[in-house]
TrEMBL record:
Pfam annotation, one family: Glyoxalase
Protein name as it appears in the record: Glyoxalase/fosfomycin resistance/dioxygenase domain-containing protein
Top-level taxon: Bacteria
Span of domain Glyoxalase/fosfomycin resistance/dioxygenase: 34-147
Source taxonomy: Bacteria, Bacillati, Bacillota, Bacilli, Lactobacillales
SUPFAM superfamilies, per the entry: Glyoxalase/Bleomycin resistance protein/Dihydroxybiphenyl dioxygenase
Length: 151
């Protein structure tokens, strides 16, 4: 294993036959792990809708099957489904959990999301108590994304 310092970040590089794995050093904090149909497809899809910075791409069971991203300050780890180890995509929508995302332009985000294949579950609505605009999106892997417009 080789440790590299790139732009003040430590990366561990594991060399395997015909394969390089970049792994960022673990830091204290909270990370959301999501099993998706395909990690690289999720990265591409979410990159069309939200500001996404790639932190790490790994190859475990398959090439590039795990991707760690920073989405506006939150670390999200997309893990490609792998039923052999119990990584399954939800077959139904978890109704009691979603991810909140605050954006500058909710209409622009809605259009990008629908174009990228998200389902608009709740259209852009004005919240009655605080007057904030919000919408609820569902991605193709049944995860819900509550999107608010920043004030």
């Amino acid at each position: 294993m080789v440790i590299l310092l790139v732009e003040n970040h430590h990366f561990f590089v594991t060399l395997k036959p015909r394969q390089i794995i970049w792994r960022r050093a673990m830091k204290k904090g909270i990370e959301l792990d999501m099993v998706v149909s395909d990690a690289m497809t999720a990265l591409e899809t979410f990159g069309k809708v939200f500001k996404v910075e790639i932190l790490e791409v790994q190859s475990t069971a398959k090439e590039n099957d795990t991707v760690l991203v920073d989405m506006d300050g939150m670390h999200i780890h997309f893990l490609s489904k792998n039923e052999e180890v119990g990584f399954k995509v939800p077959t139904s929508t978890p109704e009691s959990m979603w991810v909140n995302v605050i954006v500058d332009d909710i209409e622009k985000t809605k259009n990008a999301a629908v174009d990228a294949g998200f389902e608009l579950v709740i259209p852009i609505t004005k919240e009655p108590y605080e007057g904030m605009l919000y919408m609820l999106l569902k991605d193709k892997d049944n995860y819900q994304w509550m999107v608010y417009e920043a004030e």
